[in-house]
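*** Query protein ***
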Amino acid sequence: MLGDRIHRRTMAALVSTAGLVAGTAITCGLAGCSTTASPGINNGLAAMNPGDDAAGGDGDAVELSETEIADSMARSMSALEDFFENNDTAPARLAAADPDEEPAEEPAIPVEAPPEAADDPIDVADADPEGVSPEERARALAADLEAVLRETTDDPYTLAIRLAGLLAGEPDASARLDALAETLPAEQRGVVRAVAAILGEAGTDPASMTEALVARAEELDEARPVRIGHLALCSRVEGFGRFNELASTGFVAGSPMRMIVYTEVEHFDRTEIGRSSGSRSDGGIAVEDGWEVRLSQELLLYHESDGLLAWRRPEEVTSYRSRSKPRDYFIVDQITLPRSLTVGAYRLKVVLRDLADRSVDERIIPIRVVADPALAGATSTRYGG
């Protein structure tokens, strides 16, 4: 294809040149003029028409008749065709060549149009910020981060705490956290819900925020299992944190062994009561609305050497009602150990139970029974806390 076009254009150029020369000669012949040809032109005409006596020296005029010009053109065209045929490169007969023919255009390679984009939902994170509100962007980013946290966090408790902060202020935060929180132990579940509630109050004024923090802190404290704080053997107790400890936990065998077991209680549950609970008298004052604390305490004395139970004070229930929510609580037990206790080392176990949530805590106070008062010695009688 390309070779044919080159030869076709070459022949067209040659024909145009020959036509120009012949036209010039014909014009001059018809006008009765003579043309002074340069040696190059004379030689060219002689080559095109070797049979004519047209060659001359420098400066000779050349006159051609119309018949001679036509014959010369025919012989030149035949010579050109023979040249291309002998070289096996002729694209077509010269007569078919058109000097004015425009070169053929290369066929256009079809270009496939790109497929139309599907109507996928727009990712808010990649969308034009001008078309998306800040609230929508925040919710979309929070949803993406929540998915990442759920995929990468193995510990349910850690995940719940992180989600509580992430979802703070969302209207459906509780619903999205509850399913996860229900799989946690009671104490962890309480922490997660308290954190979520506190962060949900972040948009309020400082005073409201403070009240929310205090309230949630109390709820978390009550959600923890009951715990024995300070524990001491005392000779006198005047109130919470006001007591006189015994100088020693050593007692002489056969002598009276009187003491007061002072127990401070932490993380106790406070149950809200109302008129439906009925009126009860506490210390001579009828309390119809307020708070109630119900605990019990049991005392057991064991031989340290063999673990045998030497003495026991059965479980006793202590109940307290108040119109105000109690913040501090302590239990006082006055006991007298039997004179029959033999010489040796003992362990006094204090078992505290919260009757509201059934949680339990235990502590041990070491006691010694000696035969000689000089051996009793001064030892600490305060334990725990």
About this structure: The chain has three domains: 2-96, 129-223, 227-383. Helices lie at 2-31, 39-48, 66-86, 134-152, 156-166, 173-181, 186-200, 206-223. Confidence is low (pLDDT under 50) at residues 20-59, 90-97. Residues 2-31 form the longest helix (30 residues).
